[in-house]
Each structure stands twice: as C-alpha cells, then as structure tokens.
Specification:
Chain A is an alpha/beta fold and 432 residues long. Helices cover 33% and strands 12% of the residues of chain A. Among the domains of chain B are: 66 residues, no CATH class; 30 residues; 148 residues, no CATH class. The radius of gyration of chain B is 27 Å and the shape is globular. Classes of the chains: A alpha/beta (432), B mainly alpha (539).
Chain lengths: 432, 539
Amino acid sequence: MTENTRRSFLTNTGAAVLGACALPSTGIFAQPRLGGTKADKKGNTLVVIYLRGGADALNVVVPYSNPMYYTVRPTIAIQPEDKDGERGVVKLNDHYGLHPAMAALKPFWDKKQLSAIVNVGSPHPTRSHFDAQDFMEYAAPGDRSMTNGWLNRYLAATQTQEYNPMRAVAMQGLLPRALRGKYPVLAVPRMSASESEGLLDLFDDVYKNRGGVEKDVMEGELSGGAKAGRKGAVDVGRHTIETLRHYWEIVEGEDAPPTQAKYPRGGLSNRLKAVAKLIKSECGLECAAVDKGGWDTHQGEGSDDGSINRLLGDLSASMAAFAKDLGKHLERTTILVMTEFGRTVAENGNRGTDHGRGGCMLAMGGKIDGGKIIGDYGTLERKALQDRRDLRVDIDFRTVFSEALKGTHGFDTPSGFFPIFSGREPLGLCKA
Amino acid sequence: MRVLFVGIVAALLTTTIPAQDLRPLTEDEKILHLLSRLTFGPTPGQFGNVKGMGLDKWIDQQLQPEKLPQTELEKKFSKYELLGTTPFEQAEIYRKMQEAKGEDDQMMQNLGRFRSKARDEIRAYVVENAMGSSAQLFEVLTDFWRNHFAVDITKDSVEYTATHYEIKVIREMCMGRFLPFLQATATHPSMLVFLDNHISRRPPSKSELKQIENRYRRRGSTREQAKEQAQIAKQRGLNENYARELMELHTLGVDNGYSQEDVEMVARAFTGWSTDFGKDGTGFMYKDGMHDPSRKSVMGRGIPRGRRETGMIEGKTIIGRLAKHKNTANFIATKLVRYLVNDDPPPKIVAAAARTFKAKKGDIREVVRTIIKHPEFFDRQHFKAKFKNPLEFVTSALRATEADVSAPKVIADAVASLGMPIYGCEDPTGWDDTAEAWRDPGVMALRWRFALRLARGKVRGMKIGERFYYQLPEDPLDLMDSLIKKVVPQGLGSNTYAVLERVTFKRVQEGLAETERGRKELAKTIVGILLGSPEFQQQ
C-alpha cells in the first residue's frame, strides 16, 4: 500500500460525499444513497466480536470427555452433567460441549450454523495482551511495522470509486486496530441518538455552504494555507454530520428496521442491536467490530459460578438475540468471535487461569459450514502442551481470517495480504 | 456534473487571484501564526503581550525555556506522588504489592489502583504542562519528541517507567543534541520494553541447544520434553523490533539506506541492552551473557568491538553513526517542519533545517531556531494550514477560555476519548502528524460535544474561568464580537460569523439577552459554537 492511498482516495471520494451533502437536507437519508447501487448493498457482513483479555478456551469449548481436564482443574472445571445444583456442560458431541452459560447458542449448532475452532492462535510466542492483540488485529505476528488492520486492508483492497461510509463500523469511540488504517472507518461515538442529533443540528449551519469558503475566497478574505486548512476542517465536519445522520437514520429513524428479538441488557447487546439494524437496512455494511472486555480471568474465573459464567452468559444471549433479530439476514452474515490467546491449561491458586498460547474462536452464521469442532485440544497431558502449560497453536488465526473473508465476501486474500504467511491446510470453516 | 462544475469554479478562483496567496503576512498575522504553531493555542491577552514585547524577543525567550518561571505549575505538581520516582522505586512498590497480594482482596485493589495511578499521573502531568506552562514552545517540542520516540504505557511494565522517561529523557533532552537524546531513549526501560529489546538475546548455538536438552534430561525430563525445551529456547532469541524502529522511525526513515540484513545486524549488536530493576535505579542493564558476539557490519561498514562489554561498544557505535547520518538529518528535519510548518513540508525549510542539524551536530534547539527564523516560515501558504489533533484541540480550548482545571485526569480522558490517548499510541510510529489522520468519519461529533460541555461548565473537573465571562459587554453584538476576539483571535469566516449573528439576534428577539444571566447564557452558546467551528480546528 502506498503512502498516498488514503489521500487520493479521500480526494476522489470526498467529492461523492460533498455532492450528496449539497442536496437539500429535508428528509434525507430515508434510503441509503451515499454511493453504491442497491444491488451492491445486499452484500454480506462480517461481524467481529473481540473478547479482550484472553478468553479461557477450555471453559468455553469444554473437552468434557477428557479426565485430564478434570485433573488439572479441580475447582473450575465444567462438570459433564448437572449435579448438586451445579450446571453441566451443554453437549455438542461425545467429546466437546459449551459452557452451561452458552445454552442459548446450542440451537445454532444444531442448525449447523455454528462451529468452534480450538488450539487456534498466533505463531508468535508472546503472552503479552498488548502484543498478542496487536499482532492479531494487524494479522502480522511479530511485525510491528504494520499499521493497517486486517479488516482495513480488506476494505482498501476492495474499495471502488463510489464511496459508501457505511461499509464498515466500529461500535466504539476508538477504532480497534483491526479497522485502523488508510481506509476511513466510522467509529460510532459513544453518545445517545438524541445528544448526537442535537450536536449535528447545532453545527449543521456552521458547516453548511462549504463553510463559506468560496465566498470568503471571492471577497479576498481567505487565501493561502488558511483556505486549504478551512476547507479541510469544513470537510471533516460535513463528513461527520452526513455520516452520523445516515447512521442514526438507519438505526433510529422512522424507517429503521424493527428489532425482532429480545436482547439482554448490556453494552455488547446494545451494540449488536445497532449492527443488526445496519445489516437489515441493507446499507452496504461489510465489516463491523464490537469489543467485549473482562476476559483476563486471573482470579475468580470459576466454573459455572464465577466471572466467566457472567461473561459467557452475556456473550451468548447477545449473540443469540442478534442472530434471531437478523432472521433471514443471518444467511448473509458471519459472526467471528475471537480473543488474543487462550489461558493456562491448569488452574492457578485463585480459581483462575493465567496467560496462555492456543485459544478458541467461534464462527456463526449462514455462511458457516457449521456443527464442527475444528482443531483438537489433544490429551492435555503436560508433555503434549506448549511449554508444558498451554494449549498448542495448531491452527494459525490467519487461516481463519482468510477463510472468513473468502466465505463471507468471496475475497481471496492476495499474496502479501498477510505478511510472511503462505497459507495452511484449509479448515472448511465456510460453505463451499 | 455538480462536482465537476464546482471543481471548475474552484480552479478558476485559484487561477484568477493567485497574487493574494503571495501577500506576506501582516505583523499581527505573524503573531497569530506564532501563537498558533509554537504554543498550545493563545490565551486571551497573549496576543497583546507578544505584540508589546515584539516577535523576535518572544521567540528568543521561548527558545530558552530554562529561564522562564514555572512557580505556579511546580506548586500543582507537588501533589503528584510518583513524579520524580525512578523506575526502580516504582517497580519496588509494585513488587511489594505483588508479594503481599495473595488472597487479600484489599491488596489486589491497591495494586489495581497503583497501576492506574501511574498511568493517570503521567497523562495528567503532560496535559497540565501543555496547558499551563509559560514555556509553550518547549511544551510543543516535548509533544513532538514524545511522539517521535513513542512508547505506550499500556504495554507491560512501561507504565511504571514512563514517568521517569518523560522527565529524565523527553523533557530533559529534547532541546539538547540529538545523539545523547537518542542514546538516552535506547537505554531507557520504557523503550527497551516497548520494543522488546530487553528480551532480545543471541540465538543459542547448536551446542547450547544440546546443553539445554541435556540439562532437562538430567532433571528427569523425557527426551521429547527436553527437545521441546530446547526448541522453546531457540524461539526466544533475537528480537528485531527495536533495531528496525531505531532505523525506520527514530533516525533514517523507512527504507532509507538500510536493508533487512542491516536490521538483523543491528538487532544482534543490541542484544544484551536489557532491563534490571534491582541495581542503580535507572532500570537499564547491559547483560553480556545475552549478547551475540559474532562480528558485525552495518550498512557496509564493520563495527569495532572492545575487549569488555562488546555489546555496549557496538550499540553505541551504531547509535553514533545513525545520529550523524545525513538521512537522519533529513528525516528529523522533515518531521519537525511538518509539525511546525505544514503537512506538506516546504523543501527549502527542510533543507535549511537539515543543514543546521549537520553543521551544529544535531543541536535540536538550533534546528528549531532555523525553522522558525526561516523567511518562508511566515509564508501565507502555512498560515492556519494545519488541523489540530485532539491534544491540541482540547488544550487550546482550555487555554482560550482560561479554564480552571481541578482534575487534570479529566483533560487526559477527554483527549483519549477523541482518539489520542497520551502515551497510548499502540504503534511505535507515534500519531501521524497530518490532517488526514484525524479525518475519520464521526470524529467531529466528539469535539462538538466537548466544546459545548466545556462552554456550559458541564465537564466535571474543569470550568471556564469566572474572569472569562466577567464584565461582558451589554450590547449583544458587542458581546459576540468580544468573545470571538478572545476565542478565535485569528478571525472567523463569513459563514460562522453569520451563524453567530443569527443565534444572537434570535436571543434578542426572544427577549433573552436583557438580563446579565441571559447574556451569560448567550455567551456560553457562542463560546460552544466557536470552539466547535471549523476555524477553531485550524492551526
């Protein structure tokens, strides 16, 4: 990617945005119309849910048939059956089951819309949250010079002349690294619709008429760097107003698609609810990123009672509601749940686990060739573990990324898309 | 068609009145330009002060920050607990807490609080200085260098060493010579940990791998387990991060005169430049056992080696060569000119700055002087041409409104929420210093919210000074004009001005501008709009 990509891109596409902005602002955005044709916009969406902190694979996808699992986790293992008021595993097959808090996802497994990937991770040996997230979201393990996230690289590689600001959203004020880079992506600011609309209305006039730039230039009041500077500032503001109005119109406007599922309360849930509206409105959303923190369970992780129970309960109920809400649109949606690494196989002294290597991912949606556990925890005997303590990394996360992009967007990652990665055995994550 | 048409009009406009673009800046504009670029935004009244003193005298004063009084700030900083502590001391506090934690919830909480205290204090320290220091050019330069030698306090132990890094490296050295500055970053635990050099070691040789295997066998491991341990030891060898960024980001610039082999050679030379928090308190320790003793040559030149501490000699030699390399002079000059002058750095100023860099042996103060005193510095092409980044936006808003800040953490949080957490750029590149970097859709909404909340006193921990809204003119239009002059002394465009006029007239028509209280409300609205206007985003 050249240094100029984004600059020239903005110059080319800024025209499209401003063209749209110059139209009268009555009842605008009833239909998405910033670039792209209707046909384009029925496209598919890849929703990435990032579990920050390193989710404990073994208590998410539980190897309940393996006695070693129970040996090394005397107080935090998930039991094979309900017993003494403790909930047992949600069985997926004879060997693996989900944490009991994840029962809401079982129906999707049964419909073959859900798969789990285990012993997946990065070839880089780091156990630092910072580096592991960095390497994963830039999909460049060990390479600190990469500054475009893997989803941003996809967006840049497939951009067309017609600019659609809704191709990707991050449902948080700061862009996650996966979406950061040359291609401009909307980070939905954390504020209510009414506060946002109030601000946009107030500043609409200030950023109208191209900020009076032409008039001021004509009258000799504006020239040189000040002209370029003002024009730039006005463009940013105008871009914000149009994009956010567009966003809120889709999510909260009169024609907003109704929510057709009961979501649990909570941040993740609210953000997924908004993503569902974007997908259902067919605005051309290709990638969405949603974060959920709190997975660094060094203490009090517990089995069916501790923090992981609460976290997984929220994750699963939110995902299930999201999928139900999407209805037929789930067919064109892929949900990929990921985390930077797994955790130690054995529990520590605080009913928790420490940073590990291999982890797990979940993949759900209409494009997923579901009902599979991809990968294998193995015996969990110490000698078979990475550094005698962690799950091995048998599956490179980049293989999952590339199959998700291919399966969802029909995008073949070109060589060099992932630096120094030549590809691996196919996993069969998505339908052919 | 519309777009094309507008394009033609714009083209005509620029071609028909080119002469205007060449007009030199007036004396007043020059002062405004200086205050906009060499400070974190003018405070009301500062324009008059500089004008009274004269431009050149102000610049000379600012170039000697050591001589400017800082008593008020010093008082504020006495409340900070971790300022002035060494990495060793912070690590010690942390280590004791770690040991004591066990099952104790209270200790866990204290530990968590200590972690966030370390982060909060360093961020608050940076914003308080940016906002309140009288040595504004110095603060602007610390911001540049903090970003040039970027480290992220959210990575591992960096949060405990960044206070020291800020005070003893960035602030103490950023107006001195480049070589010792570079050397200081290279030996600071913040940098060594951020770029993984502290764990970089010579890859074990075959015989050493065999030794590791044997050791494990002796301790009763199976052959398989022992082989595995050897494999792990092999993986934890050379780490190229620091070597690469040293050349790509700190000195030569990307792909500018070095090859991948050079990166590896430099990485080998720096093996052993590591950390240790137990000794003299600086946190740096050269560990000869980690050093790769092979002969090295970098960019076609051999590296001499001494008898003892070979790695120190090799590393210092490389730093010395990089610091005086012509590509480094050009790279640093280009970045500084981009920062102080224009996103597209004018080549003549860059060339002059690079010449000074070479002639004055990397004297940063002299390079900066060359840039500011260059005849093109005041070229109209650069006037108001830059777009404020979030730190500049927030601090300039607080300075323009003479805000009282009781909780500097709140400012730091505000800057972070706008996308630029201080000491929190995850990439070693630092923040991109061009307008485009801050142009992601949606970003302005957060600036507008901040603007309105600040104007209305709705941000807890900071409020616009009483003095600022005191004795406002009775006539609403006079009131408006006086506020514009205070907040955007460089002047408003016709559109923003018209909007403010409409807002003011509406208040008058509704009879809401007759009381002192009503006028104050109007003033708050006006200030909110001013801080959110395109003009205020320009720098």
